[in-house]
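User: Structure please.
Assistant: Input sequence and predicted structure:
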Amino acid sequence: MKLLLLMLLLPFYVCAGEPLIYADDSYFPVIYKDKEGQSAGILYQLLLHHAKITGTKLEIEHTSWRRAYEFATQGRGGVIGLSKTSARLSLFDYSDPIFDDNINIVVKKGREFPFSKIEDLKGKVVGIHLGASYGEAFDQAAATKMLSADTSAVPAVRLKKLLYGRIDCALVGSGQLGLDSIVDADPELKANKAQFVILKHPLVKDTLYLGFAKNMNMLKYLQLFNQSIADAKLKKIIPETID
């Protein structure tokens, strides 16, 4: 049945062409540009899988997350790695969920603190990714100044601020794998790897999607892309979640 649906929808997109997809350039290991400047990561593997089974050419452009999001809101292309919020639901049409990514709280060794709810971050300076949403509870806490959000566009910068005591904690996705990916790619951070500790409880489980601005009228494309998501999960090309 799924194969039949792909075959029925495919001719439309072969004629219309594949849309441009904007993506973060430094979301390790979800989607990023490697040392050679090539696309890499789990979401990239999904996009490749979609292109393969539909016989279309992948059009992807990496940039900062803030720009990727802004370009998508302008209707210049889709954006992959998008979270859902009530505000964004009025702006974007979403794919089915791709996978869940735990957003973790990283602290400097010796400066651990108990965390189980958003109120535990009261008064703390929290390093976050520029333009990212970390769930409505965190976004509200930042907006009301219950905590102080310190933004940076580069994950390594966030961890260096943590290392030198400029922030109390930093938010990093994808568990120990995500933290290691950032630290191991930077000599200074790698030399201080033992200084970074992930708190036991994640801040939030962030479900990721592909989204298009509603004025792009991409619901038919998303219907086809959803079949690629299901097939990629069935074949273990992408995980159900990243802890």
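Residues 26 and 191 are 20 Å apart (CA to CA).
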